[in-house]
Each structure stands twice: as C-alpha cells, then as structure tokens.
Amino acid sequence: MMLEVSNLRVGSGGRVRVDGLDLALPERGCVALLGPNGAGKTTSVEAIAGLIPKAAGSVMLDGRDITNLSASSVARRGLALVPQWRELFVSFSVEETLLAGSNAARDRTPVSTESVYDLFPRLGERRKQLAGSLSGGEQQMLAIGRALMTSPKAMLLDEPSAGLAVGIVRSFVEAVKRVRDSGVAILLVEQNLEIAAALAESCIVLAAGRVVWRGSALAATTNEEIRQAYFM
Amino acid sequence: MSDERLRALWQVLLPGSSLFAVAIVGLLLGSYWQYVIAIALGAAVVGGALAMLVGYARCITLATGAMLAIGAYGAALPVVHLGAPFLAALIFATILGALAGLTLAIPGVRFRSHNLAMVTFVFQAVVIIVLRESKALTGGAEGIHVPPPVIFGFSFSSDAHFLLLCGILFALAMLPIAILLAGPFGKNLRAIAANENAARAFGIDVRRYLIAAFTWSSAVIAFAGAVDAPRFRIIDPDSYGLITSIFTLTYPIIGGMGSIWGGLIGGGILRLFPELLRPLADYIELVLCVLVVATLTFFPDGLASAVLMLRRRGPHKPLAEGAARRDSRITKAAPLSSATLQPNEAANRAGENPVLAIERVSRSYGALRAVDGVSLAVERGALHGLMGPNGAGKTTLFNLVSGFASPESGRVMLGGTLLDDIPIERRITLGITRTFQHAAVFQRLSCLDNVVIGLGRNTVTDGTRRSLAAALDADSSRAEREAGYAALEAVGLAQRAPDAAGALSLGDQRRLEIARAIVSRPRIVLLDEPVSGVSAEEANRLHALLLSINRELGIAMLVIEHNIGFLVSLCQSISVMSEGKIIAEGVGPAMVDDPRVRRVYFGEHETTG
Amino acid sequence: MLAEFVMNVIGGLKIGAIYSLAALGIVVIYKATRIVNFAHGAFVLAGAYATYGVVEALGAGYWPAYVLVPLATGLLAAVVEFAILRPIRRADIFALITSTIFIGIGLSEFYRLIQNTEMLGVPNPVSGRPIFLGDVIITKEQIWVFAGALLSALIGVVIFGYAPLGRGLRAVAANPRGAVLCGYSIDSMNAMAWFLGGALAGLAGVFAAPSQGVSPELAISMITAGFVAAVIGGFDSLRGALFGGFILGVAQTLAAAYISSAMANAVSFLLLFAVLMWRPEGLFPEAKIRDV
Fold this sequence. Notes:
The complex is a heterotrimer. Chain B is an alpha/beta fold. Chain B has helices at residues 3-27, 31-56, 64-82, 86-108, 113-133, 135-138, 159-182, 184-194, 196-201, 206-232, 242-255, 260-276, 281-298, 303-312, 321-329, 345-348, 394-402, 424-430, 447-454, 460-472, 478-491, 506-518, 536-553, 564-570, 595-602, and strands at 144-145, 150-151, 154-155, 234-235, 356-365, 368-378, 383-387, 409-414, 417-418, 432-434, 524-528, 556-560, 573-578, 581-586. In chain C, strand 1 (131-133) and strand 2 (136-138) form a beta hairpin. In chain C, helix 2 (40-57) packs antiparallel against helix 3 and helix 2 packs parallel to helix 4 (93-115). The longest helix of chain C has 32 residues, at 2-33. The N and C termini of chain C lie far apart (60 Å). The chains are: A alpha/beta, B alpha/beta, C mainly alpha. Chains in contact: A-B, A-C, B-C.
C-alpha cells in the first residue's frame, strides 16, 4: 500500500468533523472519496496532507509514518495535494509555478517540466503566461502539473472537476488516468459520481464525517441509497 | 438615588476624581513631589485620551507629541504675544487640538494599521518642522518662555498652587473621555476594533467614529499639553518630537488597552519612571521598550487588564431588576413573545410584498462572473433557502444585498426601496440585517453589548448622546438592555449576558449572531451558513429556533446553507445557484429530485462512463 | 549654474542610492511577510555600528565589512523575526506594528547606551583626487557609494525575482497554502525574508556610515527615507523602491540647495503625504472586505 490512513479523527469535543476514517491506496491505484457537501471529504484530505491537525489516527506513506509531519514536510516526502481552490500563485508564470513545485522534490529525484508539458500540451503553449490569466481548466491542469513536479508517490485530488466545462472534463480524465498509470497513487475527492467511476476502482462514501459505504465505484453510481445520502 | 444611577455616575466621575484625589495627597508632600505629581497627572490624562484611540479603537498614532505641542504653544503664544488670560488661552488651545485631530483624521481614516500610522507620522513631523521654522512666532528651536498661569489675577506660580490647579483641570478633562468610553460610544469603538464588517452591518460608521475618536483625544491631549507647559517654564519643539509620541504609546499598551484606567495608571506611573528611578535614567527607555514588546507578546491586552480580568470574574455586573427575575426562571429558551420583543407592526404594515426583490443582478470580479443575472424574491415573513456548490456565487449575492459589494447591473429592492446607493451602515435602519459565515461576534464585548449594538442606533451622534444619557441617568439605557435581554433569552443565552462573546462555543456564538440580527426587529435577516461547523444536535436546535423566530416575529429569512437536509426542512422555498446563476427554484423536498439540481451536485449523466 | 545643478543631482543620486537600498529591505520584508518593519532604520544603524566595529575597532578594513556586516544584520533581523515577531504573529496587526516600532527604538537606545555620546566616524572607503568634468566635480566616494549601493540593490532584486530562494519568498507571499504544498516551510521562508531584508539594511548602513556618521539619529532618518522611498515606488514593488529612493534623494538635495535645509527635511514628508493621498492604490493593500 502506498498510502494507508487508519482511524483518522479530525476535531474534538462537540465538533468532530471526521471520525474513524480508514483507507488504503495501492501503488498505481485510485480510490474515490465521495459524499455530499459538508461530509468531511476536504477536511479528511487536508488532515492527511498535514494542513489541519489530526485529533487521532495515523497516516503512512510508502511504509513511513507521516502522521505528525508539517504540511510542507509531507509535500517533501512525496504526498502531493491538489486542493479544491487550487491555491495557485497569481503572479507566477506557468513555468515558474512548475519550478516552485519542484522545490518539494529537491531531496529526491526531480521531475522535468517537459514531462508535465507532455501531459498537458496546452500548458506547454503558455509557459510564460501568468497563472492568474489562465482559464479555469488550464488552472486546474497547472495545479496538477505543479503537484506532479513535487515528484509525488501519492496524490490527493480535491474535487478537480469543479468548475470545469464539460468539454474539458474528458481530456482531464484522460490526463489523470495517465498520471495514475505512471505510478502515482491517487485519492480522488469528487462529488461527480460519473467521473469518480471513470477513474477509481473503489470508493468510500462519507456522510457527516463517517464512512457510510464502501464498494466498487460502479456499484456506487447505481446505488439509490447513496444518492439519498447526499440529501440526508 | 438608585444603586444603578450611583454606579453609573461613579463610573464616569471616578477617573477624574481620582486624579483630583492624587493631587490633594500631593499637597501634603514636599515641593519636589508636587512638581513630579503634576507632571504625572498630565501624563495620566494623555494616557486616558490614548485609551480611547489606541486602547479601544486600536489605532496606532505617532502624532501625540505634535498634539501636545499644539496645546502647549496654542496656550502659550496667546498669553505671551497677546497677553491673553490663561483660561481663554487654554480653551483656545483645546479647540486648536480638536481641529488638529480633525485635520489629521479626515484624510487619515481612509487607512488602517501601518498606513494610518504613517499619516500620523507625517503629521507629527510636519508640525514640529513648522514650529521649528516659525522663529518669529514660536521662537524656533530655542523655544519660548511660558509664564505661570494667571487666573482672575491669581498667579499659580508655586508648586502647590499649580498642583491644585492641575488636579481640578485634569479632573474636568477626563470627564468627556470617561463618559464616552463608559457608554455606547466606547463599545462601538471596540466593536470596530473587533470586526469592522460586522460593525458596519449594524450601523456603525467606522470612519466617522474614528474621526470623532481622534478629535476628542487630540483635544484632551492638547489640553494636557497646555496645562503642563507653564510647569516646564520653557517649551521647545524638540521636546514634542517623535520619541515623545512613541513613548506615550506605552501608556495604554503597558497600562492596559481595555479600559480608561489602563491609560491613566499607565501614564501616571510610566511618566514617573525616569523621576523615580534616577540612577537608572539612562536605561529607562530601553527597559520600556523591552516591557512593551514583552507585554504585547504575553499580555496583548496590557498588564492592568490582566489584573482587571481577574477582578471581573467575581460578581457579575448588576442585572437590571426585571432581568434578574427573568433570569432565574430560565433553563431553556423562553417563549419569544415577551413584552419588549413584539413583532414589529410597522415592519409588517403596508404589504410591501415581496420584502426583498433581487432583479437581474450581476457582478464580476475580473474575468469571473460571480453573479450572473440573478433574480430572486423573498415574500414577507417567508423562509427562503439558497444553496449550491462552492463557488456558485451565494456569498457574493449576500454581499450585494447587504451592501458589501455593489451590483454592476440590475437592482436590489427592499420592500419598494432601492438599495443600491445606500451605504452599508444605513441598511439596518431599513430593516435588513445579516449574520456572517465565520461567526462575526465582537469577541471582547459582552453578549449583552453585542446584542444591544444590534439595535442599530449607532451613528456617532447616537453613540455620543446615549453615552451622555447613560452617565446622567442609568435608566436611559434600560429599554435597550431589556430588548437585549429579551433577544438573548429568545435564543437561550440570557444567562451568558455578561460573559465575553469570545468565551462562547461556536454554536452559542451563532446564536448570539442570530440574537443580534433580530433584536432590531428587521424585516428580513440574511443568514450565511448558520449551522456550518456545529454538531447535528445543535443544528436541530438552531433549526427550531429559527422556525420559532420566524413564526412569532414574522421576520423573513434568506438562508445560505450547505446542509441540505437542514435547508430543505427549514425553508418553504429554495433557489439553487451554480456558476453565478439560479438554475432551479422550487419547494422543499422535491428539489432534491430535480434533475437540474442533481446535475449540479452529481455531474452530467453523459460524461465518460 | 548648470554645473552646480549637476553636482547637486549627483549628490542626490548618491544619497538616493543609500535610500533605495534601505527601501528595498523594507519592501522585501513586506512582500514576503506582510509586515511593515518600523525597526528597519535600527537595522541600518546596526549596520553602521558594525561597520565601525569592523573597520575601526578591529581595523580590518572595508572589504571584510561588505561581507560581514550584512551577514550580521541579516542574522539580527532573522532573530528578531524568530524570537519576537513569530510569537506575536498570532495576535493582531496592532501588536505586530507596535512591536516593530519599539524594537526599533529599543535597538537604537541599546546602541546609544553602548556607545555613549560621541558620534563615531568611519573613514571613506575610497579616496583620492576627485574627477573633473568641466565645472562639475565628482568625488570618488560619490561614485563608489552610488555604484556600490545600486549594485547591491540590483543583486537583491535579482535574488528576489529569479533565484530559487526568491521564488520561495514570493510563493509564500503570493499564497502561503500553495507554497506549503510546494514544500516551502512558512517559518523558514519568513526567517529568510527577514535575513535578506536585514542584510540589505546592513549594506545600506555600510554605505551610509562614512558620510552620515554613526549615531542613533541615523535610525530615524533612514526609516523615514526608506518608507518614503518605498511608498513612492508603490510599496509592493522592488523596482519601485529603487526609483523611489533616487527620486527622494534628488528631491531632498535640490530642496536643500535651492530652498532651505528645513525644506529638505519637509520634502520627505510632503512626498509621503502626497503619495498616500493621491495614489493610494499604488500602496500596500490593507485587509480588504473580501470574504465577508
């Protein structure tokens, strides 16, 4: 297992936001984390990445314990997060953004910007363009590209299809498949069940901070119970 | 005189009286101490004035030296050049100080924090330069000689006489500051420091309050400078330089930011340091710097406040009689229709339906069309929900309605009144209030104070008038406080009335926000994610609370929420937003089956399978 | 007449170069950590004192000074950030700004205590016959300070704009969360920003020491000039700070020569006020009403 999360709890006292989350991500695997707004998906992913504190539980990356590391250390160890709001640098060019990402890979094998341009040719056409002036889809590609530059062993993608125009979604799904096949384990947080089914072998459904369903992604799309869970 | 009235008067008279008392005590001591105490009293007054500006409003001012100089020269020059009587010169100098504060503040309060500090810095430097260069008038860098004050022929030249004069004059000077700080004016300043947006949403015009604070404190500081000047015999511009401004800042910071006493005691004691610790004179300034930095790091509210905080944990502030009785009956939220929180007939009159009409409103930020041609109507007394994925534009829409952003096209009507050009601060008077996504209570104010601010009577004029009224007649604020208690009671927080809002749990802070939003009996309240981050049980309680408020007071609500179950069961009608547009509108549970809604939340059916 | 004017401009450029260097440090710290460092003048003063220490007290000469002094002041600044400002960061902006004010005054007081009363002096780093261009006299010192300060400033700009370290600082400034995802540690970057800013201040001190003297007044004059220069340049721009410094230096020198020395003093404040009033968008943005 590339990424193992055990018994993750976030929050305490009256405000437990995630409780008892277990998940295992194999190398070259993709697991989807589903659930309605407010279920705790983003909270879980941010806690795994070290951006917010964990009340309990552990996270192992490639066999090593990263539970108590700071977020920047987690990134340097090879767990990349592409957050929901992308968090790009508005005044950086595409090229510079990628170089910024390479900082996390400085103690390990570096990734070349060319490989990212290969994956996202549209970025390659816009190397000098400022990140703030890119379209929504291009920004998403750049965010993923930046994460790739950190030479990750595993990647957490938080609602990457949010705000993407329908036409782009197809090529984006292809790109994520290629990333997965190149050896990066992926944990995909999504609301869009179809996209999740296209990319993930298995999925976990969260509601109100707890796991309410596990199974194959295909089963999830046809399960009426899950659809209802979104409107608890 | 009732207990209450005595206490209120006392609170306002005590600061000044204690200065007078210290002066009297000083008369019993020797001439050296009389000199020193007179200086200390002057510094205490400066500290008290700075308590308003620096302590309450949290503005950084580097212009105190200049204000002192304006007072000193403003009184000395008429006496020296024109032979004016001292009292007249004193009044003139004080008015000059007020004008100076006004001149500085009017352009300055456009800014906050470091920009504001720099404007005051410029003012400070320019005043000193002007004083230095106007040799003919001011004697330039060598300064001028100031004669002892002469009042009705009597010359206050001896140390004892001068100390007595100081005691009287300084006691008077503290009066306006004490009145303002003890009353709603001071509370509103603290609200500004706590959360400007929330303050504005409840009628507090931040710029005007800061201008008023600058004006009052500059006037009092100039007064102190004018009274002290004769003591120094000779005044010169360099004694009122930047260093003076910086070191007067230590008075409220070390003394205590939260109360007038902090400034008074801080000023009095810190000004004495160089006198009392003669052998260490060289190190005083360095020690003070270390003290300030240490205080800011470990006691951000100042040392005196740390002490006062301990005292406040004792008996609570006295409750109004009626409230005390009510208080003992409460175990959970009492029924809403108590005497002081009736549904506002005025609000419900004249139809005015819909109460809120948003018509084809659009707003972009750069390339992003955050709100795109949105139309929405909320009927009188209705509960309307607004949902949609993140980034759909819901909060932007709220900002457009509450005035924090202005629409580029379209318009917003509140019961027939066009809202577009009405500033945020005035919207509460039209009957629209809101809560915020991150509970925007005024952390350091008590729950009761938070809610009383919600009444919206918060213009500078109102604040000043109410503070004066409160000092003279403790009963004047009874009606407000009772309305406040009623609102707190309605949300189940009556027993927390005297506690600081910051001490409440998140759920309770959200209740407090609701109390604050309804106490003015608005026509409509905008609720921004009222149950985000609270537990399921708390969400249920808030659900019941909002329903009962709506039923009993007839207040309409527009609610943003991500918790769809909560929204669907609370609201009679719901609009769904996505990418800036309303994509669906409907009633209750049927919404969740609407294919458009499902597409927004689940994605297209025709993407790759 | 013309010669006199040109000489004044050259004098203005020389002092302007020092101001630019000081302003640059302020802007680097601001851009990277969003703190306006009111103690910056004290850092420049530290640089001047350190210069005295290296050149006079140790008798080591100037070349070591150009290397050691910025290292020392950079370290001082980093320690200030780490030990004092980082804990206060949790508190509000009022505490932060006020702390830097008092740290600045405290440091100046500290030096004054150590050094007592006399003004210390350091010799000129370069000497020799001045250069004559027609009626215009240019001293070697002027050229040295102008060129040296400008070069140092340009190196600072290049580091900030293009070097990996600079990229990290700018990333943290642009989006701390995004920077963390790239493996940058906010704490380390903050300390580095202050180190860089402090080093630039120290260099300003080295260049200023011979002609401005080494005394606590230098702190106030440098913080004033540094701010004004930074504000003129739009505060959020390094290049702007450079221009601002030169504009201020020349304006001050010309005012002193053709109006009065008091006017020279007033010029900085008038410029500051004018920019604050009429070009506030060019200034460092304050907390706007964004996520209400």
